[in-house]
């Protein structure tokens, strides 16, 4: 869903940083070969993620939901030289595709892939995080949030994607639409939780930036 016209989106992208060549190739191959390419962060949101990561300059990043690795590489651009990025996904078929592009990047030794349920894997990561990007199954957003807040460094940033959910957050919720119900509750939790301060940005499908106090 476009919350502003495509022309304005194109204008915003044109007047933002250029998309790196490696990410252009990843973007193109994702659209050619992978189902649901709409899930890819894309040029404009990717540059937003990159800039936020560079502002934080994190030692440890956690990404919940890798897909084809586009956002992963954007987030990695802000890593400290000795930093690490742990990314988790359940789709075994995408592991080699992700690794191909990770290995072509400057961050190949800093990105660690994890295959399986994030709810099982996160507790095994013995780290404190400076930056977390949540972009996985919406029904577990609240569970992910509750799990990672205690693992965040003070001043750390939690990014949550798809929080406007194609505008469904403003529509009557269908009885069987669990994802929208969870996102409505999640957005309220982020607004009310005293451990964080939050702003919801109407970028693409909605991106929330929450800072741990």
Automatic annotation (TrEMBL):
Source organism, top-level taxon: Bacteria
Official protein name in the record: O-methyltransferase family protein
Keywords tagged on the record: Methyltransferase, S-adenosyl-L-methionine, Transferase
Organism of this sequence: Flavobacterium beibuense
InterPro entries for the chain: Cation-dep_OMT (IPR050362), SAM-dependent_MTases_sf (IPR029063), SAM_O-MeTrfase (IPR002935)
One annotated GO biological process: methylation
Coiled coil: none
Any GO MF annotation of the entry: S-adenosylmethionine-dependent methyltransferase activity
